Amino acid sequence: MSFILSILIFFPVVAGILGFIVEKGSARVYGISIAAIEFILSLWLWMNFDSTSASMQFVEFFPIVKDFGINYYVGVDGISLFLVVMTTLMTLIGMTSMTIKTEIKNMVVTLLFLEMTMVGVFLALDAIVFYFFWELSLVPMLYIIGAWGGPLRVYASIKFFLYTFTGSLIMLVGMLFVAYSFYSITGVWSFALTDWYALKFDLNYQFWLFLAFFVGFAIKVPMFPFHTWLPYAHGQAPTIGSVILAAVLLKMGTYGFVRFSLPMFPDASVMMILPIAIISIIMIIYTAMVAYAQEDMKQVIAYSSVSHMGIIMLGIFAMNSQGITGSIFQMLSHGIVSGALFMLVGVIYDRTHTKIMSNFGGLATIMPKYALVFGIMLMASVGLPLTIGFVGEFLVLIGFYKVSPILTILAGTSIIVGAIYMLSVYKKSFFGEVTNEENKKLKDLNAKELWSFIPLVAIVIWLGIYPKPVLTPIDNSVQAMLSFMKEKAITPEAKNMIIATQAAKEAK
Amino acid sequence: MENLVYIALFAPLVSSLFAGLFAMSPRKTFVGVVSSLLLFISFISSAVLGYHIATTGANVHVTMMDWISVADLHIPFGFIADHVSVTMMVVVSLVSTIVHIYSIGYMDHDKSFNRFFSYLSAFVFSMLVLVMSDNFAGLFIGWEGVGVCSWLLIGFWYHKPDVSREENPSISPSWAANEAFIMNRIADLGMLVGLFIIFWSTGSLQYDVVFSQIPNLAPAVLTAAAMALFIGAMGKSAQFPLHTWLTDAMEGPTPVSALIHAATMVTAGVFLVIRANPIFSVTPEVSYFIAALGTFVAFFAASMALVNRDLKRIIAFSTLSQLGYMFAAAGLGAYWIALFHLAAHAFFKALLFLGAGNVMHAMHGELDIFKMGGLKKQMRWTYAYMGLASLALAGIPPLAGFFSKDAIIETAFNEGTLILWAMLVITAGMTAFYSFRQVFLTFLGDERYKEFGIHPHEMYGFVLIAMSPLAILAVIAGFFRDWFNSFIIHLLPNYEMSENTHHLALILGAIVLVVAVSGIILAYKKYAKGLKRSEKTENGLIYKLLINQYYIPKIYEALITKPYAEISKLMWTKVDMRIVDATVDGIAKFIYKSGDGSRKMQTGNLSNYLNWMAGGALALLFIAVASSVIG
After folding, report:
1. CA-CA distance, A322 to A300, in Å (whole number)?
2. Is the reported ipTM for this assembly greater than 0.90?
């Protein structure tokens, strides 16, 4: 299977188009089967991935527009591998747990289309291919929010679309400029990332290019103060939309920083550590407080996502392997946990048609299994050791401590403020007396729901106890990237700041 | 021997998972029995390990597998049974086994019986991970694990609604649970920072590597690490100002209070200081701070216990106070004495709490000692147990507390810290007073409970038998002091009194004893005959201050909880919605409006277009002229 990456990218969309001719009643089953095959394919990729190697694997390359150096160029390394696996997993689980009744066929096709764009973003090694999938991912999400969303769905979906689209356009300008620079130096056009990595810009150029990419990525992450599209999108999106949005789409932004900004502009990245750390800390503390003030359960999870993305951003700019590997692990962990939390909100919304916490109370008595799963995800979300949430958070904080103890202590308050809003959600919804008579008739998780949660719970515990199979490949690629960055950096500050452990090892 | 380490550690986990299987099914006695048996197995393994270590002097060290391994950071799951950890293992598993058996009786009528055992065993597992880990990160796993179990168990009766602070000072079990968790998290941040400092200065989190690197480290680094670790310890061991959660934690079922909030978990902070003694012994400023804070808390907590009317809260304050003693000892460098007091305290305090549980069971959940009295008749065994435990707590010879507490007070004298010494002596008197005030008000005097139509009865026989090992240990543990000293100094630095103190030992002991006995006599005079309340005292300033815990919970609410909620609300409604989001929408609206406005230029009327064109040409001309003039 030498074309495994292309199969991974295009299988869902081909199957999705064929899905139009599938009978409406079996659309869901069809979608689940396709997502399952896709997931198995991604597992196959992982099994055959050489985790001792840090370089790009399963590379495919063929020219599209030769004169402009635009190629279909894809590959996978430790950094992108698990994001792909997480994408296919969350699509599968999201589709399995889906409770949408109307236009189910359209939803299945849309999701499969979305899956292509997400996998494409993580596998692309050509900037144009990357940009193509990046922008294309907006369309299905726009449709999901706009067609199946709540009362404010049109406002929310347009806001989401325009906001992120504007950011991406600025990023596109940056990309074109990089390609032009490449052309003016070498005389040929290329959009291949591996070619771009070799470019050394002076500090001034690095700074402006960094900013151009920053705008595109930061809105996607979303970083403060560009985050306000997110609560609307989550608030209006159907459960499946929120799951994919939180689990995968946000990660595209942070992935972009790791794939583009760091290796292309190492000096600018080091220069920007302080401002980004400050924004990250604002994200962590400020949005955690905003989350605490919410009355709607789903909004709490939405704001908590921003808070957790703050931790991820901080780790990326730690400029050492602990921080960046921790960040990528935290992307996976947040994907699983926030996805699960949004699904959990969906469960109660399906039953009561409300997400306002004052309508709940005492749910633990009525729905013990639900309370148990929610409790486990809560603990993972607050970063309890031996759950998936701890590993990433711990690594990020320990990594960033090397950069700045004071900022790390401020960022570390995430373990406190995170506990405050999550425990408050749990207390309001699950503890106390059953205040709402109607809630007494609520049914606990049914078999379908239970089977969507069991794999997630298993992963949360497995990767909490034994994260090594995932950490090692990530770490290899991250260390290779760091030694490359250290090599490439032109300012002494950047050379000092970037810690490449592997280089030191090899020197010995 | 390696297998024994695994059995001791994992038997409680098996027990927890087993009980967890039945968590949602109706009460089954065998769940409790199986759990207790598994815990007993864990105890036996720990005891055998202890014997092995005592006889051979060799540690048992196992490394199970890698946990987190990134770049130069390697954290394995490694466990060690050495002199310190095996002492903790024996104490923890013994008290846990007894509490498990006790709970079969105590939780008899609770519909969540099975779930209770699952949580309780999970706690024991976490606690064992905490004490057995061979590195700081593993300790942190246990540290957070016991925190979660404590949260689950304090909030065990989660269905109770919130009430006002006047009605119930802890508001509700779920409120108390969250308070405990969040307050511990504040301290845990300190602990994490300690870990970070240690890692970046030594390159490892393994105890042996870290401790061997200490001579190479700068004093400032060591001080920072010690301080950060101690902040962590302050949370778990509920030291001022992070102490309020412990008394509120009494909302949990009483066996939980006995096991977690008296005998084991709250001593984790003391354990940390003892475990990391190579760091603390080279940071005298931090150590002195620990000793001073410990002494202050000993006194401060005892003062609040003097007037409290809640049976469990009095014991909780007393726990706080005794933790203060332990920190005083550890801070003064007498690590082994701190550990000895920790073990002795675990026995008699667990006994005291379980006794309180019997009383509570008999009184149908009533906790106000002003509504009790004369229970001696119905509950002779419980009276004996609680009396014994209180004597031990008060430090009356030859019971356990006498040997351990006396050594701490003597240490304070030996170090020349006379203020600390005096405070600890006064506290010993207060301890004796409030312990016996409680015993007398509960068991002697007029039978006030009759007014409330309560018919008390003694606890089940098997429960009373299960408590007996604790009673025996509360009596005899003190005699093992010299043996324990020779055992533990293989790992901990020995602490010897100076020649001078040695000469004065008898006098010093006599002073403490006289103070303690006077405390008991005072309590007897005031309360043994019956309850006489005096309006004047109860309206006095000091009484009000003490009964309201120096108003600290209220201050926290006014200065932290409420403002946090209000600022959060403000951040959301004003900053996030009105400023950040409104700006975004404003920009969008501006673009939309300006587009909408300029659309009106497109009238389709040719003469209009000509006007615009002329205007444009003029403007361009003007700009050209202006720029040439300036340029």
Report:
1. 29
2. yes
CB B424 within 8 A of CB B295: yes
Q: For chain A, what percentages of helix, strand and coil (3-state, to nearest 5) are there?
A: 80, 5, 20
- Helix-strand-coil split of chain B, %, nearest 5: 75, 5, 20
Q: Is the dihedral of CA A82, A85, A87, A90 positive or negative?
A: negative
Phi, psi angles (nearest 5°) of residue B79: -130, 145
Tally of residues, chain A: 508
Q: Does B155 touch chain A (CB under 8 A)?
A: yes
- pLDDT tens-digit series, residues A195-235: 999 999 999 999 999 999 999 999 999 998 899 899 999 99
Residues of B in contact with A294 (CB under 8 A): 572
Q: Cα separation of A506 and A487, whole Å?
A: 14
C-alpha to C-alpha distance for A164 and A250, rounded to whole angstroms: 11
Tell how far CA A414 is from the center of its chain. Answer: 19
State the Cα–Cα distance between residues A391 and A396, nearest whole angstrom. Answer: 9
Tell me if A468 and B569 make a contact (CB, 8 A cut-off): no
- Best of A164, A394, A470 to disrupt the B interface (most B CBs within 10 Å) is A394
Task: List residues bridging with B63 in a β-sheet.
Answer: B78
Q: How many helices (H) and strands (E) does chain A have?
A: 26, 2
Task: Tell me the pLDDT band of B630, cut-offs 50, 70 and 90.
Answer: confident
B182·A419 Cβ contact <8 A: yes
- 3-class DSSP assignment, residue B396: coil
Stated pTM of the model: 0.93
Does residue A503 register a pLDDT over 60? no
The answer, for B48 touching chain A at a CB cutoff of 8 Å, is no
Nearest CA among B79, B76, B43 for reference residue B61 = B79
Q: Residue B565 and residue A322: Cβ atoms within 8 Å?
A: no
Tell me which chain A residue has its CA closest to the CA of residue B69: A468
Q: Do A325 and B70 touch (CB under 8 A)?
A: yes
Instruction: Answer yes or no: are the C-beta atoms of B183 and B266 closer than 8 Å.
Output: no
End-to-end Cα distance, chain B: 91
- CA–CA separation, B447 vs A480, rounded Å? 78
**Sign of the four-CA dihedral A385, A388, A393, A394:** positive
